[in-house]
Design goal:
Elements (H helix, E strand, L loop, with lengths): L2 H4 L2 H14 L3 H12 L4 H22 L5 H10 L8
Helix pairs in contact: 2-4, 3-4, 4-5
């Protein structure tokens, strides 16, 4: 199994759903609320959140790094902008 097979959009969405259910971190729920209140449909908002999460997952996998919760929160706060992609 390659690294690309380990993290799919489906897996990321599942992780985000779990974070919402557990309210951990709370910023995920806050971000979903903020994005949907701004007019974004829930599935699109979930994709944006999963994108912010993917930055951390890729760093963990590719660089054998520790999950950076502070950076994840910062990336959630920047949504719908995705400065880490540009």
């Amino acid at each position: 199994m390659s690294e690309e097979d380990l993290v799919t959009e489906e897996h990321l969405i599942e992780i985000v759903e779990n974070q919402l259910t557990e309210n951990n971190p709370p910023r995920v729920k806050e971000t979903l609320f903020r994005l949907t209140m701004s007019g974004m449909e829930r599935p699109e908002a979930m994709e944006y959140i999963a994108c912010a999460l993917s930055v951390e997952i890729v760093d963990v996998i590719q660089n054998d790094a520790k999950f950076d919760g502070d950076r994840y929160i910062k990336n959630l706060d920047s949504l719908p902008e995705t400065p880490w992609m540009g």
